[in-house]
Structures are given as structure tokens and as C-alpha cells.
Specification:
Chain lengths: 153, 343
């Protein structure tokens, strides 16, 4: 493991989210790398500081002032004549129909293509865990696979 | 002559050899139906390692319907799954998510096929008995024929064939517990409502397409690329089935492998150059094979995972391959295609 990989995984290491192999590699690397050790200590103390900060409370009367400001900002709708309303509805329907056709066209074009996956690695991890539970769920000889389900992610 | 006579007498009297008993008991344990209703509490090794365990409540009726609920640890408390033989639903309360898909039990049970394969790759022996959660269990030792594969011990309820404990040998030669039954009962009936999932609130429901078992050609059509299927896999592994994974934003192929006892999944997908490998997936290794990423997920040691992945990488380096329909193996009546060189 190099420093770049290690520093990318330090947060997961602190949260005990690393897989056993990664955990062993990380420990081995931290044992020999002072830079990553200090990075770990810095991140650890930052996390401690963040958890110790209390949540600020709003001042007294904040909610009343906010609601007053919201109510004052409301603007009355202008009076519309029936003809104006009909034209507006027609225009709206036309625009909606065009945009729907365009969307359908784009969707059908996209369905015909197979793009390389750009799914983020967390998304892939989710899908893999879901699939692993699915695959193991019909096999009682391995216990209860549900235990692998997404905890702490 | 004497041996033949003994065998003849044993056959006539219906006496089985210990190996034959081990085989029969293993096949029962790998099956899905045990002819009884079961309510149990089990302790299951956390796949994240560090010797931590999860406590899971298991309800299983005699038809094979299941309801699992995680009781501990706190971060997973209340995660539930229900398989009513038609749908498999999993509820993740902290995420407000309900995953809904076809029951895997709609596919044919392959316990016999797996047991036959296990007999090729392991020596099965019944050596001992043990008392687990008040039940008399028989210990089946599975000694692998390949030295790099860890040995396994299954403790199976002597009366019903239900697996009560699994132990595996780790790389240091010590036995580690995969799961262990802490309490078990066999009630006459289980209320039918236990196999309905009633999530709290209004969770987001995510449905998945039915993960059908496919031929290679159909899988290729479905996911848009030719999957890599090695003709031979190391350690006696065989392809169990090929399915597509139609997760949003991640179209991939899921190839189930097994050596009879160990379950492994190969995922293959097209990845953008330079895209990060998925991280934090327990017991996984990834290689790049041409334009594809190939990931193996299994609880085998990393050195074994690498060797299995090498078979896929080497296969991808072969050029000019086409799918042929000669010697098409089947499983449960479903064809599996094997890639063979064009010349």
C-alpha cells in the first residue's frame, strides 16, 4: 500500500469500515509511515473536535420573524381573462407535448447504447452487497446472509 | 471374496458407509426444506472481520419460507428480509429502503449437483457429534483436495439435517466460527403473517428485474458486452449460473461459481478508463481484463481469489473467440454456454 491509497482510506479506517484485508494493509502501512500516521492523528482529532461542537440554537423569536418574512413576500396573482387563460393553457400543452417527445427520443436513443459504467464505487458496493445477500439467501448452510447488509455505510 | 461378502451383506441390510452417510447428510444440509418449522437465534460472523459477530433471528417454515431479523449490533438492528418463495424483500430501516425482487428459491434447488461437486473437491467424513443449542448434531468434516482451500466443518442437526454451525480453518490453521446456533425450536406452526414484511413508515421501494439464469449469448445481449467465461476454473470450481445485474447505473454480469461448498460470485462490467475500483467490499478482489473489470467476491483467502481471477484475465487475453454451442453444459435444465476459440 502506498501513501496515496492509505490517505484515501484513512477516514474509512477511523470509522472501522475497511474490509479485513484493507485493514491489515492499512495497519502495516501506518506502522512504517510517519506521514500517514500524522495524517491519521490530524483527522482523528478533527473528528473529535467536530463531535464536541454543540449544535447552535436559533435566537428567541427567530421562527416568528421567518414566518412574517415569508408571508410578506407572497405576491397576489394577476387577474386573468378567460381568453388569456385558454391561450396560456394551449401554449403550456404544446410545450409539454414537445418536451415529452424529446425526452422519449433521448431515452430510446440511450437505451440502444451501452455506456461504460460510471457508477460511483459506493453505488457498486451497494449493488454487490444486495446481490450477495440475494445469492446466499437460499442457502441455509452459510447461516443468515442478511448480516452483510449495508450497516454503517 | 470376504470383502465382497461383507459389502453384499451391508447392501442387503441397507447399511451405508460413513462417507455415504456424510454425503447424504451434506446434501440435506445444502437443501432448502427440512420438513419442520424452525425458529432460531444464531450468531453470525461479521463479514467485516475483526472477530465481531451479529445476532440474527431466523424463522423458517417447512415449505422454505424465511424471515431473518438482525438483533445486534445496533448499527444494523431491525434490518429484515422475508422470502415467501415468490418475492424476496429486504427492509433497511435506517436507509428508509425496501428492496424487492424475485425469490431466489424460484430457481431449482441444486443441492444434489453441489453435493456431487463437493465429493469431487473434498473428502467428506463424519468424525464426531456435538450438542449445539440442546440438539444432537453430527459433524461433517470437509477436507479439501486442493491444499489452498480452507477445510470446513458442518454441524448438522441429526434429526432434521438443518445446519447448526459452520467452522472454517483460517490461514493460521485455527478453526473459526462462521455461524453458530444459540437457540432453536421446532414449533408445530408459524403464523403466516411472519412471512409478510411490514416496514414502518413509507420506505422507498427499489425493485429489481428478475435475475434470470441466462445463456452467455442472452447475457451478452442483455448487458451489451461479451462476458469472459473460462473453459476451466482452478480448484475444481464450476459455473453454477449466469445472471445479469440490472442495478441502476451499474449493468453487470453476475456469474455464480462453486466448488460444491464455497460460494463465489464473479461480477463483470464495462468501466470507464481510470474509474476507481469499488472499495470496502468485504472479501473481494478486482482485476482489469481488457475493457472489462472483473471482481470476485468470496470468503476464500486473497491468494486463492487472485488465482481464480487469473483464469478470467488469461481468458480475456485470448483473441478471436466466439461462443459455440458444442458441449453445452446444463444446470437445472438451463444451458450454459462456454466460449471456445474459433480455430
Amino acid at each position: 500500500m502506498n501513501c496515496r491509497t492509505a490517505q484515501g482510506q484513512i477516514s474509512a479506517y477511523l470509522d472501522r469500515e475497511l474490509a479485513p484485508n484493507d485493514l491489515m494493509n492499512m495497519r502495516a502501512h501506518l506502522a512504517i509511515c510517519e506521514n500517514c500516521q500524522s495524517e491519521l492523528e490530524a483527522l482523528s482529532s478533527l473528528k473529535s473536535m467536530l463531535t464536541s461542537i454543540s449544535t447552535p440554537e436559533p435566537e428567541a423569536g427567530f421562527e416568528d420573524r421567518l414566518m412574517r418574512a415569508v408571508l410578506q413576500s407572497r405576491v397576489e396573482e394577476p387577474v386573468r381573462t378567460p381568453v388569456f387563460r385558454f391561450r396560456a393553457q394551449l401554449l403550456f400543452a404544446g410545450v409539454a407535448a414537445c418536451s415529452m417527445l424529446a425526452t422519449l427520443g433521448v431515452i430510446s436513443w440511450l437505451k440502444g447504447r451501452v455506456e461504460p459504467s460510471s457508477a460511483p464505487s459506493q453505488s457498486i458496493a451497494f449493488e454487490v452487497r444486495r446481490d450477495q445477500i440475494y445469492a446466499a439467501s437460499a442457502d441455509p448452510s452459510t447461516g443468515a446472509p442478511i448480516g452483510a447488509a449495508f450497516g454503517g455505510q | 471374496m470376504i470383502a465382497f461378502g461383507v459389502c453384499l451383506v451391508a447392501t442387503c441390510l441397507g447399511i451405508h458407509s460413513p462417507d455415504s452417510d456424510a454425503r447424504d447428510l451434506l446434501e440435506k444440509a445444502l437443501g432448502r426444506s427440512f420438513g419442520v418449522n424452525i425458529i432460531a437465534i444464531i450468531s453470525q460472523r461479521d463479514p467485516r472481520g475483526e472477530d465481531s459477530f451479529q445476532t440474527v433471528s431466523v424463522e423458517r417454515d417447512r415449505s422454505g419460507k424465511t424471515h431473518h431479523t438482525v438483533l445486534q449490533p445496533l448499527r444494523m438492528q431491525g434490518v429484515e428480509s422475508v422470502d415467501d418463495l415468490v418475492r424476496f424483500r429486504m427492509y433497511l430501516p435506517d436507509k428508509g429502503l425496501l428492496i424487492d425482487q424475485d425469490s431466489p428459491q424460484r430457481h431449482p434447488c441444486d443441492a444434489r449437483w453441489r453435493t456431487d461437486l463437493a465429493c469431487q473437491n473434498y473428502e467428506l467424513r463424519i468424525l464426531d457429534t456435538a450438542n449445539i443449542a440442546g440438539r444432537r448434531s453430527t459433524r461433517i468434516d470437509a477436507v479439501p483436495r486442493f491444499s489452498e482451500i480452507p477445510a470446513r466443518r458442518y454441524y448438522v442437526d441429526a434429526a432434521t439435517g438443518y445446519p447448526l454451525r459452520l467452522e472454517m480453518m483460517d490461514t493460521d490453521g485455527a478453526w473459526i466460527t462462521g455461524f453458530d446456533t444459540k437457540d432453536i425450536r421446532f414449533p408445530r406452526s408459524i403464523e403466516a403473517s411472519r412471512f409478510r414484511l411490514d416496514p414502518m413508515g413509507d420506505p422507498k421501494v427499489v425493485r429489481y428485474e428478475n435475475p434470470e439464469r441466462l445463456t452467455k449469448a442472452l447475457a451478452a445481449k442483455s448487458i451489451g458486452f461479451d462476458p469472459i467465461v473460462p473453459t476451466v476454473l482452478p480448484f475444481g470450481f464450476r459455473v453454477q449460473s449466469i445472471q445479469t445485474n440490472d442495478g441502476k447505473g451499474w449493468r453487470s454480469l453476475a456469474m455464480r461459481l462453486t466448488d460444491g461448498l464455497v460460494r463465489a460470485t464473479i461480477y463483470q462490467w464495462q468501466s470507464k478508463p481510470g474509474a476507481n475500483d469499488p472499495h470496502s467490499i468485504e472479501n473481494s478482489s478486482v482485476v482489469e481484463a481488457g475493457a472489462l473489470k472483473v471482481m470476485l467476491v468470496t470468503d476464500l483467502p486473497a491468494s486463492v481469489r487472485r488465482k481464480i481471477l487469473d483464469a478470467f484475465r488469461l481468458r480475456s487475453e485470448s483473441l478471436g473467440m466466439v461462443a459455440t454451442r458444442s458441449e453445452v453444459p446444463t444446470i437445472g435444465g438451463v444451458e450454459l454456454l462456454i466460449i471456445q476459440p474459433m480455430f
